[in-house]
Design goal:
491 residues; five-stranded mixed β-sheet; alpha+beta; 13 helices
Length: 491
């Protein structure tokens, strides 16, 4: 779209002035000018042979002045047409976001109570198109986070932000139940064509998905596709979701990382301690300074978290034993960052663990979740003795290398990868795994492998793996239970 700018106006004025100047110059030089840029105009008449020289000059001057007048008029018409076209396009751009939310038979959206709200009422607002469904757990989890951000934005800005729910629910009852938990508007469930059109228009490949539409923006700056990631990472602080605001947040984040310490991560004005054992014992945060610390994000209701916690407890004790045996000054601590639903669940969960914890429902927990961009649990973030982030892949490293992963540094991981490469040289290239009906082939990251979820232990893996070429089944080499390679039918 062409946008009217001062630069455009100056350029067009200069062009018009040049044309006028050329014609005027021709008048002054009695039409003898030979400028290559003179406008192409048809002669209106020829000099009359019976006129005197003075009369012919006046006649020619009138003709030239008429030419100037016509050129000015032509430019005025062209400019008016162009301005009109630009204005139409500006209006079109402003209304495009809103027109996406309507159909030929509908000019309204639905509130959570079923009230019709005119689409035109969203004029001038930042709009979030929220593609979601009640049957998908990640959508329900993100829904709570988005509601908190939405309420905060509304409190701060008033009515400058609105979310529109685009449902992928299975039926009307599911849609109504899910929408009733939301404070924002929705495309009617029955308007299947509009929902399909929006999915195609924004190339939605997965849910939850949040597309941000900016008002009064040119095409290139009007749409932002990564709303889910930004809400997870920055929450309400990301509003109005412009490129300028996101760059500002990234600069602030970089500054926080550079000044990151255990104390400023784990304390606030009202609390400078963590919970320990026996139950509710207070342990000063500054007592962890100089130690390697793992921030463990999990919850009692999370089945993968329950399974990984058992493994982590075992590894935690083994790391402690290794440090004690080697008589090192270093120490390893873990801090639970809980997502439990109530105090009772938190207490029962924490009592199964040998490490420290943030108090239940402490606001620092949500801050840490955003700060470290935690998008799924369980998750283990490792901090070095100075409080700086070593890795956010602690869970994966524990699964791959167990207690040998400590202290989780880049140098340590590189050493372990080299050792794994050496061990892989002695592994059979093909195995028959007891848990699968096809042969599995040894692959590395450079030969068809890569990050994966082990189909035997359901934990993360990377580097070397045994992979079924026929169906994609993958297991850690350590999880393979080799059996004699006898014929197995697919029956």
């Amino acid at each position: 779209m062409l946008v009217i700018t001062t630069k455009d106006t100056k350029r067009r004025t200069a062009t018009l002035s040049a044309q006028t100047y050329n014609l005027t110059l021709r008048i002054q030089t009695e039409g003898k000018t030979t400028e290559p840029n003179k406008p192409k105009v048809s002669p209106k008449s020829t000099s009359k042979p019976n006129l005197s020289k003075r009369e012919r000059e006046r006649e020619r001057e009138r003709e030239m002045r008429q030419e100037v007048k016509e050129v000015l008029q032509e430019n005025k018409v062209d400019r008016e047409s162009e301005v009109f076209g630009e204005l139409v396009e500006v209006v079109s751009t402003k209304s495009t976001s809103l027109s996406l939310l309507t159909s030929k038979d509908r000019d309204f959206l639905l509130s959570p109570t079923g009230t019709q709200v005119k689409v035109a009422d969203l004029e001038g607002k930042v709009i979030g198109l929220y593609f979601s469904a009640n049957w998908y757990l990640p959508c329900r989890n993100f829904n709570e986070i988005l509601i908190n951000a939405y309420d905060r934005i509304k409190t701060i800005t008033g009515s400058q932000f609105e979310v529109v729910f685009v449902s992928s629910d299975e039926d009307l009852n599911a849609f109504n139940n899910y929408h009733s938990s939301m404070p924002w508007l929705a495309i009617p469930f029955s308007d299947l064509e509009s929902k399909k059109s929006l999915n195609r228009r924004f190339d939605v490949e997965g849910i939850p998905c949040l597309i941000i539409l900016q008002p009064n923006k040119t095409k290139d700056g009007a749409i932002f596709h990564d709303g889910v990631d930004v809400i997870y990472r920055y929450g309400a602080s990301a509003f109005p979701f412009t490129e300028e605001r996101l760059q500002e947040l990234k600069r602030e984040e970089k500054e926080r990382y550079e000044s990151q310490t255990l104390v400023n991560l784990l304390t606030n004005r009202d609390r400078d301690f963590l919970l320990g054992h026996p139950t509710l014992k207070q342990v000063p945060v500054n007592s962890l300074t100089g130690k390697t610390v793992g921030l463990y994000f999990t919850a009692q209701w999370c089945l993968p978290g329950v399974k990984f916690t058992l493994k982590l407890i075992s590894i935690y004790h083994k790391i402690k034993e290794l440090l004690l045996a080697e008589n090192k000054d270093d120490d390893f601590k873990i801090v639970l960052v809980s997502s439990d639903r109530d105090q009772t669940d938190f207490d029962a969960h924490f009592n199964t663990m040998p490490w420290l914890a943030l108090p239940f429902d402490d606001p620092i927990a949500k801050t840490l979740t955003k700060y470290f961009d935690i998008q799924g649990i369980p998750s283990l973030v490792i901090l070095d003795p100075d409080g700086k982030t070593v890795t956010k892949q602690g869970r994966n490293l524990i699964n791959l290398y167990q207690e040998n992963a400590y202290p989780f540094t880049e140098a340590r991981v590189e050493l372990l990868e080299k050792l794994m490469d050496e061990e892989a040289k002695n592994l059979p290239p093909v195995e028959r795994h007891a848990g699968h009906r096809h042969d599995v082939t040894l692959v590395s990251e450079g030969s068809g492998g890569g990050p994966f979820i082990c189909c035997d232990c359901d934990e993360q893996g990377s580097g070397w793996a045994y992979q079924c070429i026929e169906c994609g089944y993958e297991v850690h080499p350590k999880c393979v239970r080799a059996v004699e390679n006898s014929p197995i039918t697919d029956a």
